[in-house]
Amino acid sequence: MAIGEAADRAGAADETAVAGDGTLDRTLDRTVGDLTLRIDRTLCVGFGDCVTEAPEAFELDDEDIAVFVRPEAVERDRLLAACRACPVDAITVTDPGGSRLAP
Questions:
Q1: Which domain holds residue 74?
Q2: CA quadruple 93, 66, 29, 25: dihedral positive or negative?
Q3: What per-residue confidence (pLDDT) applies to 24?
């Protein structure tokens, strides 16, 4: 595993934080170019369609829940297609203006 990959995975592993209301926030956010990607780990049920579409960008962790690998390594159109492939809309993508591009 390359050093950059280890850093990416280390950042992705930190998926829970306590929100202001005391609940656990189980989301992962990643900025790729001008896109903001979010995986809502409470919605993901592990179908793996994102992994099928872009295995460089996503993988399923030990809980069979999607996490980021290297989404910046995937061209924009294929990354958007992978995010849109999620059948439960657990992955969202927004542009700099806040417009949702996926799902």
A1: 3-17+25-102
A2: positive
A3: 55
Per-residue pLDDT tens over the stretch 16-40: 444 455 555 689 999 999 999 999 9
Query: Measured between alpha carbons, how far is 95 from 103 in angstroms, rounded to an integer?
Result: 12
Check: CB of residue 100 under 8 Å from CB of residue 45: no
Looking at the 3D structure of the chain, how many domains does it have? 1
**Residues listed for the chain:** 103
**d(C-alpha 8, C-alpha 30), whole Å:** 10
Query: For the residues of 69-98, what is the DSSP string, one character each?
Result: S-GGGS-HHHHHHHHHT-TT--EEEE-TTS
Which parts of the chain sit beneath pLDDT 50? 1-19
Q: Domain containing 68 — which CATH number?
A: 3.30.70.20
